[in-house]
Amino acid sequence: GIDEGTADEIGILVTRLNATLLIAALGEAAYPKVAESHSEAKKFAESKKIVVMGGITPGQTTDAVAAVLAERVQADVFVNVTSVNGIYDKDPNKYAGAKHHRTLTPQQLLGIVGKGGLGAGSHNVLDIIAARVVERSHIPLVVLDGTRPENLSDALLLGKCDGSIVSGTKKKILPL
Q: Is 175:156 a contact under the CB 8 Å cutoff?
């Protein structure tokens, strides 16, 4: 029964708590503080340690936070590790016949995520803001199943991607 703004603020706190847990799990490899802004994340990155952040802006998901950060640091690729193995035409947890997309253009991604909700707690593979940033920045997006952590190393180190790749180009995205 609380308003969306309050729900967003609580969500930001929860993502920062999760980020703190991840920093603890990463140990010395991680910068010891959760970045609370893009500027802080860029500054912390100078340490050459893993920088972890959670939410920063009410009304935006951590997808949008990550997409804007990828754009600001001119990343070669934006990897989104989530709870499904890529991008589907509809929620695969609700619809048995959902179609998995191995590759898409940014415009196709926008067509899919534009149908999703925007409220606190909505579940889209990526939010509309992040999808718009992917489109405007021309940074390729890779969406992987994070329930199997080896998917990330397989993609980045071996070029094996069981997820989805969003790119406006046909050039090889992985491995970096």
A: yes
Q: What is the pLDDT along the chain (176 residues), one digit of tens a residue?
A: 899 999 999 999 999 999 999 899 889 988 999 999 999 999 998 998 888 899 998 988 899 999 999 999 888 889 898 889 999 998 888 899 999 999 999 999 999 998 765 554 455 789 899 999 999 999 999 999 988 888 888 887 888 888 999 998 877 777 65
120 to each of 57, 62, 166, how far by Cα in Å? 12, 12, 25
Which CATH number belongs to the domain containing residue 76 in this structure? 3.40.1160.10
DSSP state of 156: I
- Are residues 27 and 75 both part of a single domain? no
Are 51 and 66 within one domain?
no
Domain ranges, residue 42: 1-56
State the Cα–Cα distance between residues 76 and 137, nearest whole angstrom.
Answer: 11
Does the model's pTM come out above 0.90?
Answer: no
